[in-house]
Specification:
Elements lengths: L1 H11 L22 H4 L23 E4 L6 H4 L3 H7 L4 E3 L14 H19 L4 E6 L1 H12 L6 E7 L13 H10 L3 H5 L5 H6 L10 E6 L21 E5 L18 H12 L6 H5 L4
Parallel strand pairs: 1-2, 1-3, 3-4, 4-5, 5-6
Helix pairs in contact: 5-6
Length: 290
């Protein structure tokens, strides 16, 4: 039990970080110079290059959205440079600060920050849409932006790595302890990501996959944060939504919640979704390894 308690409070009671977190309040009209990017703090390698112009091959910039308590630089240190090498314009943000703790504030406010950031990216690049890759809360929060803030018409793909789409029954299944920890950490976003929260009930009411958007979910049976792991899955029309459990295709990959954002095998599904029309086709994505 001590192992789980240590893990829980490591996740919930995150240490104060030194990165200055602008709340992404830059005005879209000022985005042409890319100044809003510097306000986000230290980006992961390959991201937030104001001079990048989308190509005909990759017309949608990729926006990387970190998870609860995470910064963009830590969460996407591996994925961002790989996307850059493939020719994508890559952008990322920090959001939802409560004091110095990132991605912990009300998710509605964080979605508004994402809206401003994406508007700035579109103005900067001249693109019509973006594709979003998000980890944990970062894979779920954009759905609020898309459903309630007009974002569905500005998004080509939403790719969630272990997204908290239907919340968690508690870290490692310990519901009461997780709730107490969230209260102690003043983490509104944690409370909102509890299964059955008012926020999630409203978010998932009606159409879970609105707009002409391709939705890809990649999860792991070893997820100790989003419990059960199947709560990440989205309901939607065949052809618009793909729900992937990584062990169905890579049985020996025992990746868990946090490290899936650094897992090159999980990246294969991300790349497939970005490179083709529609959501990821897992058989196609892993085909080269057969």
């Amino acid at each position: 039990m001590s192992k789980w308690l240590s893990m829980i409070f490591t996740v919930i009671l995150v240490s104060v970080m030194t990165i200055s977190g602008s709340q992404t309040t830059a005005i879209a009209n000022d985005s042409s110079a890319g100044g809003f990017l510097t306000e986000e703090g230290l980006p992961p390698p390959g991201a937030n290059d104001a001079s990048c112009k989308p190509s005909a091959e990759h017309p949608e910039p990729v926006v990387l959205v970190p998870g609860t308590f995470e910064t963009m630089e830590r969460n996407f240190v591996n994925l961002a440079p790989l996307l850059k090498e493939k020719g994508y314009c890559v952008y990322s943000l920090n959001y939802g600060y409560t004091g110095a703790v990132p991605a912990s504030g009300p998710i509605e406010d964080s979605a508004a920050e994402l809206k401003t950031f994406i508007d700035n990216v579109l103005n900067l690049t001249g693109a019509q849409k973006v594709s979003i890759v998000g980890h944990s809360q970062g894979g779920m929060m954009p759905r609020y932006y898309m459903k309630n803030l007009g974002g569905a018409k500005k998004v080509e793909d939403l790719i969630g790595l272990v997204p908290s789409n239907h919340g968690t029954e508690g870290v490692a299944g310990l519901t009461k302890l997780t709730s107490t920890g969230a209260d102690l950490a003043s983490c509104t976003a944690c409370q909102q990501q509890a299964a059955g929260s008012d926020f999630l009930l409203e978010l998932n009411e009606g159409d879970e996959t609105p707009g002409d958007v391709s939705y890809t979910v990649v999860t792991t049976r070893n997820d100790e944060i989003v419990v059960p792991f199947t709560s990440a899955f989205l309901k939607g029309e065949t052809g618009n939504v793909t729900n992937i459990t990584i062990q169905d295709y890579y049985p020996y990959d025992q990746i868990e919640h946090q490290n899936i954002a650094q897992d090159p095998l999980a990246f294969n599904f991300v790349f497939d979704a970005l490179e083709h029309e529609g959501p990821a086709d897992p058989q196609r994505a892993v085909g080269i390894f057969k």
